[in-house]
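Our collaborator T.R. sent over the components below with a one-line note: 'Predict the complex.' Nothing else. No constraints on interfaces, no templates requested, no preferences about which chain binds where. So this is a plain run: every listed entity goes in together, and whatever single assembly comes back becomes the starting point for the next discussion.
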Amino acid sequence: MRFIFRTLFTALAFTTCLTFSARAQDELLQELSTGQEDQGYIGQAFKGSRLVNGHSVETTSAGTLEFIFSHRFGRVNGGLYEMFGLDDAFVRIGLEYGLTDNLSVGIGRNSVDKTVDGYLKYKLLRQTREGVPFTITAFGSGAYKTSPKDDETPAGFETIDRLSYTGQLLIARRFTSKLSLQLMPTVVHKNYIGLGEGDTENTQAAIGIGGRIKLTRSVSVNAEYYYRLNATDNSPYKDAIGLAIDIETGGHVFQIVMTNTRGMIERTFITETDGDFFDGDIHLGFNVTRAFQLKSHKGK
Amino acid sequence: MERRVILVVLALAMVLPALGQKYKAEKGETSFFSKATVEDIKAENTQISSLFNATSGDIAFSIPIKGYQFDKALMQEHFNEKYMETEKYPTATFSGKLQGYTPSGPATQSVTAKGKLTIHGVVRPVEIAGHVEKQGDKLLMKSSFVVKLADYNVQIPKLLWQNIAEQVDVTIQVTYKPQ
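Returned assembly:
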């Protein structure tokens, strides 16, 4: 009898010890987690630096060089004769480099109007888990049209007339890991108008809205719409609409694009979009980016 | 008699874990290495916190996943966003007991940490071998072990199987000072 009791008590004592000890381990872990504070920056709102045609709030990380090849075919409604647009091609080849994690600089050459463009992109504010609700990026660019040739220009056309400028504020919020929305108030100034018919305003304002829905962890669908605020009623141009599917694999982002514009810079797609999306004037296209890490990212 | 024994044991069980000599991580580094056909991937993390009770053997680690630094910024982004789902599972933790360490023992001792390892929200019982070195009043712990991605439900897309290995070599090194 006494033996049984003793065994029971020992067993009881032993389990008590174990229980308390397990509790002690969890307490240790709890003690640790209270000491860790997350600075709380939220993950990226978009996979790439482009939403569809226009820019997203994302900048290129410090020391990363991104090669961006953008391509638009002709209009799908060109029919079989035009091979549904595949006979035409508009290309922009660009490079973007992250000077810091928040400041990127980019250059590019676009076959539409033979345009050379350069831009700076600076991330002013970054969304956090608590506190800052938005990521805000300022975008400024200049574009130089090399077409038409000097001896083919209209009377009074000067070299400076080839320039146009864009200022943009990109405001995005990542609502969930799947849904992000972006607002893009934009001003485009063209030094010269009149090369295109009905192009009546030197300075044009637009407000863009866009977003992405992530379908899987590597694939997302993006949409973008730019509404021109001071477009005249007789303007032959349309608002730019774009849809894209982003596919991310390692160092690449592939974007398959459907849009009603040939333009791949702000001046062209915001103020000179000539296709009617709902009439089938849709250009298929793609943006392909490849990232090269030139400087180690460690310690940033 | 039995009642007295119980009381003593109970009292000891409650008091002992609290009384033991406690150590806190002063600095530490953990890294992982993945060797695959196309590329070797390495990332380092110095944001380790850990507590160790030398008397009871209780030990706990907590490592913020965001602290892993890669050479390629894009890779770091994908690591957090696509594979580790860092927003959902911000830390990797271990809690358990260190077996084989005696405070009065030799300067270098082989030990085994037995407990629960939590990565990517998946909890698994593990036994990890390592060493403890006494350096004055400080302790240095070192270990390296293998983590299989599938065990912790970390999925590699088929497109990238040549870039990411199925298992990674993890090393950890922590210096403790008495608390």
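Summary for T.R.: Helices of chain A lie at 2-35, 266-271.
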